[in-house]
């Protein structure tokens, strides 16, 4: 079976990611090679358009490589992922969902695609569960129990986590950027501002366009507010780097909030020291401060990414999709039996105290976050960039519990 390279994925709407033959690299093992009819699952990844995250596709490819070449597939059968390229529009998401239904896939991975919400009613009607590390939209988060399962907290959880990080560090003013979109405004108005107000934090927000933004101007706008903390709520990786560089060039030496961005660290060198990032999982740059079992998992991720030609793309986005693939493969292998949409849903409903890949221990009983049945965990992790470019967990225990009572009433 020919392996299609994801490097060209942005040029097409969908393709199949497979790794049934040997691809070399260090991510190799002694498991028997998978045989028989492949298990084909779907994935909607934001790999097209102005706010594309191609790293999500790289992680998917590496995950398939690892599952097939190291773990021996799922119950001895090879895994394939049919990737539909999201571009941020509901129309594309609907087309992706209809395609998955016509192919009768047993599950669809949400690769943190902001337009995933448009697919929820279609996939829900077909009984096809959505699975991912975290949701790309509020609509996906709000799906009924059994329609979606996410290994970390809901979209709204990130708002509580970021404001809690500011509060923990004693910050009382912040100026933060997020790309212009209706979703961004709703996120800020309905979550960031009420949580910040409740904590006594004064937050101002800039909404640069997804393409063509002058981030030097955004940086100057943030500094005009004289904040305790500048930075982002969320921007693409290149946007984060450009904004942070502009802030440093304009003399800002205080703490910067990086959201889930991480690629700025290599490009900024010592200027990145003190920047706080909040990915959902342990990431490679935090390996030195990670528990031993997580260090091993981070090595697995790095080896697999290198094996498929993306060893320099070890971002939070790529590990999110890689981890989702590995978690899915392990849960379905443990469950055994025929793999259909119904059996996948049953398998995930039965997940209890499952040690997720480079992440928290998860239980998918629909009770982990008030009012959000899709989330399987309610913990957060924060890292601060060190002078040598590594990351260290802000809390010595890594993951910490957050207080859902601080969330605004719906």
UniProtKB/TrEMBL annotation:
The keyword Signal applies. It holds the Pfam family Peripla_BP_6. Residues 38-367 form the Leucine-binding protein domain. SUPFAM superfamilies: Periplasmic binding protein-like I. Residues 1-19 form the signal peptide. The keyword Magnesium does not apply. Keywords: Signal. It comes from the Bacteria. InterPro entries: Leu-bd, Peripla_BP_I. Belongs to the leucine-binding protein family. This is Branched chain amino acid ABC transporter.
């Amino acid at each position: 079976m020919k392996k299609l390279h994801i490097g060209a994925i942005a040029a097409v709407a969908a393709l199949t990611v497979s790794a049934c033959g040997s691809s070399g690299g260090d991510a190799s093992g002694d498991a028997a090679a998978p045989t028989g009819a492949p298990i084909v699952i779907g994935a909607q990844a934001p790999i097209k358009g102005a706010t594309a995250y191609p790293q999500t596709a790289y992680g998917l490819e590496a995950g398939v490589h690892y599952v097939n070449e190291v773990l021996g597939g799922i119950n001895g059968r090879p895994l394939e992922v049919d990737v539909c390229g999201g571009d941020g529009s509901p129309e594309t998401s609907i087309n992706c969902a209809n395609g998955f239904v016509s192919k009768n896939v047993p599950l669809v991975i949400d690769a943190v695609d902001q337009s995933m919400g448009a697919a929820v009613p279609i996939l829900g009607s077909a009984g096809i569960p959505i699975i991912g590390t975290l949701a790309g939209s509020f609509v996906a988060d709000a799906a009924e129990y059994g329609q979606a399962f996410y290994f970390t907290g809901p979209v709204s959880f990130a708002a509580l986590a970021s404001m809690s990080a500011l509060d923990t560090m004693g910050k009382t003013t912040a100026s933060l950027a997020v790309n212009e979109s209706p979703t961004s405004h709703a996120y800020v108005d309905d979550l960031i501002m009420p949580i910040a107000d409740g904590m006594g934090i004064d937050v101002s927000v800039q909404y640069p366009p997804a393409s063509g933004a002058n981030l030097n101007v955004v940086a100057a706008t943030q500094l005009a507010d004289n904040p305790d903390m500048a930075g982002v709520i969320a921007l693409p990786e290149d946007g984060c780097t450009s904004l942070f560089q502009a802030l440093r060039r304009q003399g800002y030496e205080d703490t910067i909030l990086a959201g889930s961005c991480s690629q700025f660290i290599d490009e900024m060198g010592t200027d990145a020291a003190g920047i706080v990032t909040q990915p959902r999982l342990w990431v490679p740059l935090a390996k030195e401060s990670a528990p031993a079992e997580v260090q091993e998992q981070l090595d697995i991720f790095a080896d697999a990414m290198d094996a498929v030609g993306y060893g320099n793309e070890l971002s939070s986005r790529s590990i999110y999709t890689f981890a989702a693939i590995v978690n899915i493969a392990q849960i379905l292998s443990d469950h055994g039996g025929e793999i259909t949409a119904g059996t996948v849903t049953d398998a995930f409903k039965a997940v209890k105290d499952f040690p997720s890949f480079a992440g928290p221990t998860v239980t998918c009983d629909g009770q982990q976050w008030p009012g959000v049945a899709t989330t399987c965990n309610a913990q957060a992790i924060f890292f601060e960039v060190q002078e040598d470019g590594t990351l260290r967990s802000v809390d010595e225990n890594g993951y910490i519990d957050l207080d859902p009572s601080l969330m605004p009433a719906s």
